[in-house]
């Protein structure tokens, strides 16, 4: 089991289980720079062709969508390459970071149709031959 280093993610994991886990900076939320902790209505519209905020937050000491995507992909790939086959992994992260990661592996139309990242949503993926494959999103209703 793995968690973002951000307290709200490790708190969530500790509510789910008492098992030991590792905290990883690579699973942290998208860094929004000076917009961190501000209301979402201040966020820009998605950049054309990016299906996300793109590099908007870089000018405010934050991360671009590609930086978040690369960080998440690298971290999750390293995790999956270390485990034995047929083992399950639980990685607790954040909506923006998960969305950026999914943009790497899923067509935007699949994301629009099948992915809704409400609090405590579970994104079920498989990993085979270095690739992540989307299975489903399980919502906490």
From TrEMBL:
CDD domains: HP_PGM_like. GO terms for cellular component: cytoplasm. It comes from the Bacteria. One of its GO terms (molecular function) is phosphatase activity. InterPro entries: His_Pase_superF_clade-1, His_PPase_superfam, PGM_Phosphatase. Pfam families: His_Phos_1. This is Phosphoglycerate mutase. It comes from Companilactobacillus nantensis DSM 16982.
């Amino acid at each position: 089991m793995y968690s973002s280093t951000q307290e709200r993610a490790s708190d969530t994991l500790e509510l789910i289980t008492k098992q030991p886990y590792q905290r990883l900076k690579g699973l942290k939320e998208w860094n929004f720079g000076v917009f961190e902790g501000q209301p979402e209505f201040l966020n820009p519209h998605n950049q054309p062709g990016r299906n996300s905020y793109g590099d908007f937050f870089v000018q405010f000491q934050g991360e671009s969508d590609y930086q978040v995507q690369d960080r998440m992909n690298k971290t999750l790939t390293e995790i999956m390459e270390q485990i034995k086959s047929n083992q399950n992994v639980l990685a607790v992260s954040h909506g923006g970071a998960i969305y950026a990661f999914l943009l790497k592996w899923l067509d935007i139309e699949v994301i629009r149709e099948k992915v809704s990242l409400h609090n405590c949503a579970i994104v079920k993926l498989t990993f085979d031959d270095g690739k992540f494959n989307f299975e489903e999103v399980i919502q906490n209703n």
